[in-house]
Amino acid sequence: MARSMHICTIEDVATMTGENLELLREIVSIRAGPRDFGRRA
After folding, report:
1. 24 near 13, Cβ under 8 Å?
2. Crossing angle, helix 21-31 and helix 10-17, to 10 degrees?
3. Rounded to an integer, what distance in angstroms lies between the CA atom of residue 19 and that of residue 34?
4. Number of other CB atoms surrounding residue 13 within 10 Å
5. Dihedral sign for Cα atoms in the order 18, 20, 26, 30
6. Taking the C-alpha atoms of 12, 16, 20 and 28 in order, what is their torsion angle to the nearest 10 degrees?
7. How far is CA 3 from CA 6, 16, 29, 36, 37, in A?
8. Where are the alpha helices (DSSP H) in 1-41?
9. What is the C-alpha separation between 41 and 27, in angstroms, rounded?
10. Where are the domains of the chain?
């Protein structure tokens, strides 16, 4: 299956969705700790 080559920063996502940037940062920090990167669900 092809992988997406488009990457957005958290700031981009906040702008595109109209969400609060700090809220998105908090969600990301809760969901992805440093040892979670590179693992598949």
Report:
1. yes
2. 130
3. 24
4. 13
5. negative
6. -50
7. 9, 22, 24, 19, 17
8. 10-17, 21-31
9. 17
10. 1-32
Task: Name the residue with tokens 């957005």.
Answer: 8
State the burial class of residue 14 (Cβ atoms within 10 Å of its Cβ: 0-12, 13-18, 19+). Answer: middle
Residues 1-10 have pLDDT tens digits of: 788 788 889 9
Whether the per-residue pLDDT at 37 is higher than 80: the answer is: no
Please name the amino acid found at residue 25: R
